């Protein structure tokens, strides 16, 4: 079942993104306006608070790398006839290099959720790396660096910019991907898990249940001396 409609922006803030399926409105506020925003949300004597279930700070996650193709036994899968043909995979990352030969004709659709001046073009390289690991055709290396699901189709959502991955961009990308027919959504990114869960974890659970989407999320990149499963992989 769906959730309530996204709430309107309270006084002292402006709405920059609405995600009605999650019942979420993303707000921006100037530092000077935060007292007014807080009074609007919390309420004051004689004035009821604005209807908002919960406030979340927009944190930033970070991209993480993935393992190499032979490590996961992809050549054996290919030999058995499993190439990912007919499967649409969404890559939510730093965009992709639109000129990269390994991805020519592979990315069927792309969208920027960060407001980048470069659009979906990947100026960092991580999204191109991940997209190629998933479904790159290996054209630039005569097949040496062919992706795991070398027959799959990709859609690319740019949710990470020069300074990290804003959570509202990730949420919007997840919503787009889950409702674009992607059977698999890859999130090679992560941030510190929060006690009691967070909105990204909730979104993974929601779209898994409502759209039947399989989310593949980075884990283990911080090593054994840290919390090895980061959010939203902790879903």
Summarize the entry for a quick read.
This protein is 21% helix and 19% strand. The chain is built from five helices and ten strands; from the N terminus they run E-E-H-E-H-E-E-H-E-E-H-E-E-H-E.
For the structure shown, list the relevant keywords.
single chain; 235 residues; alpha/beta; 5-stranded parallel sheet; 3-stranded antiparallel sheet; 19% strand; elongated
Note down, in words, how this protein is organized:
With 235 residues, the protein is α/β, with parallel strands linked by helices. It is 21% helix and 19% strand. Helix 4 (167-178) runs parallel beside helix 5. It is elongated and about 70 Å long. The two termini are 19 Å apart. 38% of the residues are buried.
Tell me the helix content: 10-25%
The spatial strand order of the largest sheet comes to 5-6-4-8-10
Our Rg estimate from Cα atoms comes to: 19 Å
**Main beta sheet strand tally, sense and closure:** 5 strands, parallel
Average residue-wise pLDDT: 89
Strand content: 15-25%
Number of helices: 5
Number of strands: 10
H-E order: EEHEHEEHEEHEEHE
Low-pLDDT parts are none
Question: What is the straight-line distance between the termini?
Answer: 19 Å
Molecular shape:
elongated
* Structural class estimated from helices and strands: alpha/beta
């Amino acid at each position: 079942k769906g959730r309530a409609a996204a709430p309107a922006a309270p006084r002292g803030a402006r709405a920059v993104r609405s995600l009605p399926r999650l019942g979420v409105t993303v707000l921006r506020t100037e530092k000077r306006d935060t007292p007014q925003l807080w009074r609007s949300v919390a309420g004051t004597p004689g004035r009821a608070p604005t209807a908002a279930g919960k406030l979340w700070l927009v944190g930033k996650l970070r991209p993480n790398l993935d393992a190499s193709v032979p490590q996961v036994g992809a050549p054996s899968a290919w030999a058995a006839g499993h190439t990912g043909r007919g499967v649409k995979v969404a890559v939510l990352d730093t965009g992709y290099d639109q000129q990269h030969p390994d991805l020519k004709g592979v990315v069927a659709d792309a969208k920027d959720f960060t407001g980048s001046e470069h659009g979906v073009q990947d100026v960092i390289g991580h999204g191109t790396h991940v997209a190629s690991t998933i479904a790159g055709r290996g054209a630039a290396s005569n097949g040496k660096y062919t992706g795991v699901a070398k027959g799959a189709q990709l859609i690319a959502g740019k949710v990470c910019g020069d300074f990290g991955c804003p959570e509202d961009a990730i949420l919007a990308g997840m919503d787009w991907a889950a409702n674009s027919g992607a059977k698999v959504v890859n999130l090679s990114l992560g941030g510190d898990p929060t006690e009691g869960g967070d909105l990204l974890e909730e979104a993974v659970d929601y779209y898994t249940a409502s759209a039947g989407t399989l989310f593949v999320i980075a884990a283990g990149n911080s090593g054994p001396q840290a919390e090895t499963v980061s959010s939203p992989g902790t879903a």
